[in-house]
Amino acid sequence: MSDKLIEVTEKEGVVRLTLNRPKALNALNSDLIAELNKVLVDLEQRDDLRAVLITGAGEKSFVAGADISEMRDKTPEEARVFASQALTTVKRLERLPVPVVALVNGFCLGGGCELALACDWAIASDNAIFGQPEVGLGVIPGFGGTQRLPRRVGPALALDLITTGRKIDAAEALRIGLVNRVVSAGELDAVAEELTKQFAGNGRQAIRSAKQAIHDGMDQDLDSALALETSLFALGFAGEEQSEGMGAFVEKRKPNF
Ligand code: CAA
Question: Could you state, in chain order, the average pLDDT of each consecutive group of 10 residues for the chain (257 residues)?
């Protein structure tokens, strides 16, 4: 692994981002957040992407939270700037038009859990540990946890996890819907590959539209969200994917997207 804060590799349109501060369990400091933001701005420009994977360097941790040593002496104003920059970056990751998959290979705490919550998919290794321990540090989650966690697991469980700061294992994370799958650490890459192959077998624009409908729709009232779905459904009939996908079904062959 190089000394870059974010290691970027790519295979067949699948970009893998490895957050690389293993000695600090990949804690998110300002430099790492700025670097991630830069990488995401570049990815936003590309229309040839299939998926983005995000993981942590080393065998122990996905991300153990925001960097506590850096935050320790911040003023309220500096804390606001720090959180705002992180929120912008996390939202960028969330809104990439392709599926974003967190490969949670160990500690997934505080800002790390908030990063995973912004991903469309989370696959955890069976040794992963999740939690929002911020109240134990005298603060609240600041990278989106008070908003995305209740949307993901419901307000009662989010209040439980955030007010106790308790840590949960991968099996509990799966049970409450915080992650999609749990596998052994050695299987993470193979499962990610299998998943991205499934994405690749489907219409690329259809996946983008589905993601847009879900994300934008969640922030709207039901009628507006359903109208958005109808528009995006109709838009699908303007592209080549729909004729290929439906044509392949009728002609009893595999679609070639
Ligand atoms: N910030 C800065 N450094 C961190 C860190 C963090 N969040 N988490 C771990 N590290 C550093 C440790 O200080 C240690 O560094 P040194 O070797 O220089 O002492 C190194 O990573 C290894 O950590 P430990 O020795 O503590 O490893 P461990 O296996 O004994 O414990 C752990 C692992 C349980 C994850 C423990 O490190 C820990 O509790 N980390 C903090 C977790 C946390 O509270 N996260 C929330 C941060 S606040 C936040 O994220 C706010 C927000 O919403 C924006």
Answer: 91 97 98 98 95 97 98 98 98 97 98 98 98 98 98 98 98 98 97 96 96 96 98 96 97 94
Task: Report in angstroms the alpha-carbon separations of 115 from 16, 40, 42, 86, 133.
Answer: 15, 13, 19, 9, 14
Same-domain pairing of 116 and 243: no
Which CATH number fits the domain that encloses residue 222?
1.10.12.10
Please give the Cα distance from 163 to 132 (Å, whole number). 9
Identify whether residues 148 and 216 lie together within a single domain: no
Quick check: pTM over 0.90?
yes
Annotated catalytic residue: which of 77, 134, 229, 241? 134
**Domain co-membership, 237 together with 192:** no
Catalytic residue chosen out of the listed positions 7, 10, 78, 114: 114
Residue whose CA lies nearest to ligand 1 atom number 12: 24
Question: What is the C-alpha to C-alpha distance for residues 65 and 87, in angstroms, rounded to an integer?
Answer: 14
Task: Give the residue, by CA position, lying nearest to ligand 1 atom 16.
Answer: 24
